[in-house]
Amino acid sequence: MDFSEYQTKSRKTAGYPAIGHPVIYPTLGLTNEAGEVAGKIKKIFRDKGGVIAEADREALKGELGDVLWYLAQVCTELDLTLEEVAEHNIAKLYSRLERGVISGDGDNR
Length: 109
Fold this sequence. Notes:
single chain, mainly alpha, Helix Hairpins, 4 helices, about 0% strand, globular
């Protein structure tokens, strides 16, 4: 499945409350789901010495899927495609790599 197909298919399942601008709810969901990914990783290092078992990978796959779903909805609400966001990100990263500033701080490096 490519980004375009995912974004189209995921949109059919999007139903969330009107709480102001339509981008608000999926943005809050995105941060929540990203936090769940971080929490699972934290517990793997806290409780399992950093060993990521197959069950952990499957649980993380589910959480990462939720992150992707919310990201797709945020993109849709902003009239962006996942593909153009991915292309923009790779162009930015390659530019930094070519200029020798892949590490460091700040968006405009």
